[in-house]
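Notebook p. 47: complex prediction with iron/sulfur cluster.
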Amino acid sequence: MNYIANIIFIVILTFGIGFFVKNVKKLFRNIKLGQDVDVSDNKSQRLKNMALIALGQSKMVRRPIAGFLHVIVYVGFIIINIEVLEIIIDGVFGTHRIGLTVLPISLYSFLIGSFEVLAALVFISVILFWIRRNIMKLKRFWKSEMTSWPKNDANYILYFEMVLMTLFLVMNATDIHFQDMNSGNIVSQYIAPLFSGLSENAIHIIERGAWWAHIVGILIFLNYLYYSKHLHILLAFPNTYYGKLTPKGQFNNVEAVTKEVKMMMDPNIDPFAAPAEGTEGEMPAKFGASDVQDLSWVSLLNAYTCTECGRCTSECPANQTGKKLSPRKIMMDTRDRLEEVGKNIDANKGEFKEDGKQLLDNYITREELWACTSCNACVEACPVSIDPLSIIMEMRRYLVMEQSAAPVELNNMMTNIENNGAPWPYNQMDRLNWKNE
Amino acid sequence: MSETIKVPTMAEYMAQGKQPEVLFWVGCAGSFDDRAKKITKAFVKLLNRANVEFAVLGTEESCTGDPAKRSGNEFLFQMQAVTNIEVLNAYEVKKIVTACPHCFNTIKNEYPELGGNYEVMHHTQFLKTLLDEGRLTIEGGKFKGKRITFHDPCYLGRANNVYEAPRELIQKLEAELVEMKNCRRNGLCCGAGGAQMFKEPEKGDKDVNVERTEQALDVKPEIIAAGCPFCNTMMTDGVKAKEKESDVAVMDIAELIANAQDL
Ligand code: SF4
Ligand code: SF4
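Predicted complex, structure tokens below:
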């Protein structure tokens, strides 16, 4: 027996998975650069959300065409991957279609038959996706943030899937023994005749070639994820789990501010007294967010999960009326900056070295931040429970509380509230005048 | 006709050693904005008609802090919140109704953590319970068959999932409720939220309120119904910008019902 093929296979597999694990670790580290938030509550509701939104695709199908096609690709992707199990066993042990020896033929044929049907459906759906993106040019795929890498990335993924599905079908079509069984080859039987003119040996070589290309392709794809918006196929699950549970209109109350305000309001508290318990009385280093490390880790997970679909942006009132704000761009900028910070840490032996840049201004401009109406349309639209609004709010907090850099009219409004308890310059003592008017 | 309205204050109730059934939180717009004051009065007339024992804080009320919070000024927000909560708790308020979705959202969702726990209702929800309990009746009459479209306020709809109460009230008027292209959870903002009301919009090719008004005008309504004083202003301005103010009226749900009663 010749073990070279098995060894090569094991080496490739180890490298493929090893590299992936390395990137996953980096992903975890980067996400943990964010601020801690307590999301340990309501486990059952969270599981339910994950089951419905990620597994059940409930928000995807709100847009029926894209949703339907996406469900096919998603189901196909998951189910066809069962076949990868067989490929790995065959590759490691040098067997061929181990499934045929361990499963009843009828069951095996049924499985492969359904994989083939799904592969064909995925292929068609992916082509339709490609047409929507590149020929029909759906508006949301052609916004200003969708140039260069984001645009190519989306197409690469589609090409990848087309190639992988083709390889899978060709592999089956050129497996002479499998075709001879003539069961389970529901789709590949129509591809097989394409090769009928070739010698048996040539067909075998094509079969082997397709088999190897298929598994290597899958490993490459696996490692492509980290660099791509396609990461959502993994992160959609934790992201929907950790998604916001409180009403959308409820913004968090900054705890440090609460302590400060309570101290100011309570005449019995001695402001110079030592904090009662622990050291949690101290003020945070800064209010709000000017860079990715100031955001909560859930926001950073959000950024890695974003699929750049642009459903948020297409619903955004500011974006619809030509303002610069695009909630998708907020997420993409956050991810890009986080990657930059991560690379900086890698290059400097695990320590972040000041690079003179930050998320605010270098990525997200003030003009974008002030254009938001806090309407929650983006949050409602996102199929994977991303909350771009919370990032916008954190950055406004930084601008106002750290920099006093609100637009003049807003400063006037706030001064009014401070002085007379209304956003306009009316006297609080006149609040009931309407009664007699 | 305003001479007949009764608007007791919490202080007056307290002086008599009594508790009202509900506190009416008027809000800054409802207190000071000329257009919104009409909504406030319409709602008070309905409360009077239904013999609801309510009170207002009057001069003891202050901004909830919503626009400060959404501008990013958490300090100012919490100062306002804590001050208001002190007043509300001193009066032992249990139940609050307000005609402003921003006040509604803030008091309902953001005050509890700061020590303010109340049952909070939007005025459309409150009016609906009055009808359900038979304390108030609506005659269609005036609005029968009229085309009315409802603009979902973001802070009532998406923010708090209240979509049906205002619609049920419109239907009780026997009016023809027509929905815009974007409605309920897909409703398009009027452009006022997040403190935008108080500043000029950023550069763009259109104003949000004009976009939303166009969506409303697309369904050819006779009335655009609103449930928020800020939406009301934005939509009114939008209708003016489109020079349709002689054909299309922007009215709050409370005004529609009060009007139907000839109040
Ligand atoms: S909340 Fe802000 S960013 Fe999101 S859709 Fe509304 S205006 Fe756009
Ligand atoms: S935030 Fe959500 S809706 Fe917006 S582009 Fe990303 S995945 Fe799509």
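Notes: The mean pLDDT of chain B is 95. The CA atoms of residues 222 and 248 of chain B lie 5 Å apart.
Next step: compare against the earlier run before touching the bench.
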